[in-house]
């Protein structure tokens, strides 16, 4: 199994290769580490690029992902939609804050904005998310908006929101 880490440069190279292969227009919504790296310039490398494709069915799209994997010697799941299972915590207007990270002839990639990444980090609340969340706050994420959204989810009965708001409160008290 290939454990090659994806840097910003390698992600962009992979997206360029993917852009050359796609037969029709696809929009990627990028989250996770890919968003931290490409949109928010956080200096790290990750094992994959979390992205949700629109404009092509996932089973179709996967063929092109695998082809890029072979061309560049990167993992077969270098691009995957795993973060979509957590996208339910995002505000309805998250698309208004998307940041353009790649524009090709067939492929466009837009990454989650600072506030939406901070919301995702608060809900994940893993040890590795602390530094990412701090960087987003330092970069100017609107913490009042984030807090208001998480509290709204808590009021709606989302039990995970309690841990998310505690995570945010701990960060803001530092």
Explain this structure.
The protein is built from 7 helices and 5 strands; from the N terminus they run H-E-H-E-H-E-E-E-H-H-H-H. It has 174 residues and is of the alpha/beta class. It folds into 2 domains: 105 residues; 57 residues, no CATH class. The protein has a 5-stranded mixed sheet with strand order 3-2-1-5-4. Strand 2, helix 3 and strand 3 form a beta-alpha-beta unit. Helix 4 packs antiparallel against helix 5, helix 4 packs across helix 6 and helix 4 crosses helix 7. The longest helix is centred in the middle third of the chain and has 15 residues. The protein is elongated and about 45 Å long. The N and C termini lie far apart (40 Å). The relative contact order is 0.15. The mean pLDDT is 94.
Write the layout of secondary structure elements.
Layout: H1 8-21, E1 26-31, H2 32-38, E2 49-54, H3 58-72, E3 79-80, E4 99-103, E5 107-111, H4 114-124, H5 127-138, H6 143-155, H7 160-172
Parallel strand pairs: 1-5, 2-3
Antiparallel strand pairs: 1-2, 4-5
Main sheet: which strands, in order across? 3-2-1-5-4
Determine the N-to-C terminus distance: 40 Å
Low-confidence residue ranges: none
Overall structural class, as computed from helix and strand content, comes to: alpha/beta
* Major sheet summary line: 5 strands, mixed
Helical fraction equals 40-55%
How much of the polypeptide forms β-strand, as a percent range?
5-15%
- Provide the domain count: 2
Average pLDDT value? 94
Topology as a string of helices (H) and strands (E)? HEHEHEEEHHHH
How many helical elements? 7
Radius of gyration: 16 Å
Query: How many E-type strands?
Result: 5
Tertiary shape: elongated
């Amino acid at each position: 199994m290939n454990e090659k880490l994806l840097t910003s440069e390698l992600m962009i190279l992979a997206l360029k290769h993917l852009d050359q292969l796609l037969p029709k227009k696809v929009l990627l919504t990028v989250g996770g580490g890919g968003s931290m790296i490409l949109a928010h310039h956080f200096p790290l490398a990750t094992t994959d690029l979390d992205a949700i494709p629109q404009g092509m069915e996932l089973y179709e799209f996967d063929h092109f992902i695998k082809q890029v994997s072979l061309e560049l010697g990167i993992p077969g799941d270098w691009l995957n939609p795993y973060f979509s299972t957590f996208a339910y915590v995002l505000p309805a207007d998250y698309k208004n804050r998307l940041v353009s990270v790649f524009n090709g002839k067939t492929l466009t990639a837009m990454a989650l904005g600072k506030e939406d990444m901070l919301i995702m980090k608060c809900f994940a609340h893993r040890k590795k998310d602390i530094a990412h969340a701090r960087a987003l706050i330092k970069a100017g994420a609107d913490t009042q908006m984030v807090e208001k959204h998480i509290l709204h989810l808590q009021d709606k009965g989302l039990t995970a929101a309690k841990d998310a708001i505690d995570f945010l409160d701990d960060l803001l008290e530092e």
